[in-house]
Amino acid sequence: MQHGPAVRRRKLGAELRALRTSAGLTSGEAARLVGWHQSKVSRIETGTSGVKPADVRLLLDTYGVSDPQLRQLLLVLAGSGDGGGRHHWWQAYRGVLPPTYRDFISLESQASAMRTLETTVVPGLLQTPEYARAVTAAALEGTSEERLDALVEVRLARQDVLRAVPPLELSAVLDEAVLRREVGGPGVMARQRQRLIEAARLPHVRLQVLPFSAGAHIGVTGPFVIFSFSRTSDLDVVVLDHLTSSLYLERKEDLRAYTEAFNALSIHALSPEDSLDFIAGTAAGV
């Protein structure tokens, strides 16, 4: 388990190492070609030090990597702001966002797909402004109105990934408790349920409800997010949220376990069509 910035450096380094190997170069040969000391290449590949986007470009050119999507993904992981139009807008909120949250947003903006299990609240990408404010205020009791405003702005700005070209592919399984828990009052919940129904009708959003009648399930251990990337599964990562931090799981066995868990939850959950009816039923008080 790694914290966000570390896991991103390690994933970038591992991909660069694989590309160097595919190019038939040793780390020493690669270093000589770009005019560096071998230790710099080693530190980059092991993720023990950061790397500038310009250095990544130089390595990719040296390794003969021409795939524009792969180049773009690796450059964004290195901190470049040219990620397909999804610029690092969140840097303007550095004063109010903890580093782990900034890194989560960064991964979210780069991913091609996101699978999430939510057991307590509506996923941030599907929250209405009122709901987002109520959830944030409850989670950060006593925070100033100014900081609360900024955090809600960030939550809403994150939703642009669903309107991007191409959009993020979102698959979400919601425990019934998410729909039953009254956040912000009846009016807020009514509008939030309507928002879920509208979002579920988007072609790139798959929304399923896991009803109480499903009984105990593998998701009782808590919510999680799986980020996937279109060009390489080696960059996929699982994110677990805690009260004061987030943990990032990158091992293949962890990814396999959480992928299997999500697939099992999807099987036990209502179908997307039945889930829409279920959400509408909760709105009607059923």
Secondary structure elements and their pairing?
Elements: H1 4-22, H2 27-34, H3 38-46, H4 53-62, H5 68-77, H6 99-110, E1 113-118, H7 129-139, H8 145-158, E2 169-175, H9 176-180, H10 186-200, E3 205-210, E4 224-228, E5 237-241, E6 246-249, H11 252-268, H12 272-283
Parallel strand pairs: 1-2, 2-3
Antiparallel strand pairs: 1-4, 4-5, 5-6
Helix pairs in contact: 1-3, 2-3, 4-5, 7-8, 10-12
Give a written overview of the molecule.
With 286 residues, the protein is α/β, with parallel strands linked by helices. The protein has 12 helices and 6 strands. A 6-stranded mixed β-sheet has the order 3-2-1-4-5-6, sandwiched between helices. Strand 4 (224-228) and strand 5 (237-241) form a beta hairpin. Helix 1 packs across helix 3 (38-46), helix 4 (53-62) packs antiparallel against helix 5 and helix 7 crosses helix 8. Residues 81-86 have low confidence and may be disordered.
